[in-house]
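From the shared-data thread, chain only:
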Amino acid sequence: MSSQWGEMPVIDAHCDTISVLAGQGRSLGQLSPAGQLDLPRLRAGGVNVQFFALFVNPKFKEELPYRILSQIDLFYRELELCREDLRLVRCNADLAAVLGAGQIGALLAVEGGEALGGELGVLRVLHRLGVRSIILAWNNHNKLGDGVLVAEPRGLSSFGLEVVREMNRLGMLVDVSHLAEPGFWDVHRHSRKPYIVSHANCKTLCRHPRNLDDGQIIALASRGGVIGLSFVPQFIHHADPGLERLLDHVDHIASLAGADCIGWGSDFDGMDDPAPGLESPACLPLLANGLKSRGYADKDIAKIMGGNWYRVLREVLG
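Structure, as tokens:
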């Protein structure tokens, strides 16, 4: 897992590839002109660990549990096809094995707590199936709490707080991406372990409801959490999204809270049109070079490229 910046892996904390593979008629192991992420493109970017989100639009709420299980089945079929190159990360031993063997680690995440159906037992079953991260809400209301598009959002429900406690116990990442601000602060108060924002940027630089304000970023950093900066153009800059403007978000967070809370959460295959220069994981070395050109020390580049995610994974997964 060594790089020119030291003994640190490269980690991307969010993509939606599993949810689009079947519809695009492609496989993780094959380089494809469709989509934005596959194993060859991860290799080209030097990625060691990729978070794979399982996402079902809430409009399919009656079918949601079955659709999530179908995506998990698809993931395991892809895992079998790519068994020489891809390994599921469930614990620190898996993480160490992936990095030692030069494989790409896959961490399963569920995007939207509505997948739990209001049952803690479903959370435990998902954990047994290999899921290690849950995004508590996806934009709208669910039984855990409110997303960022709710007009008058409230904090987490009693069930939402139970979910946070159980995720802490199980060794799962509590992800507050998409969660409305009252829920964010409830997680900040109640989570016993670092929580994360897998894919969002700075609201000060780009006023989008999915981005975080300065107070949230400082709070996240104070608890040892990490924000994965997203490559979605609308989260970067309204007029000029691209690599340099994304690096502006790095600079802003570093000025607020230092480099220890910054990582990447690309959201590949979760957007229609990537930002210029940020079209696939192959761009990641360009981001590292951009950080170098802006004067970041090698140790901080290593943290941003994946070391900060590695630290949180080591602390939470057990």
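The chain is about 40% helix and 10% strand.
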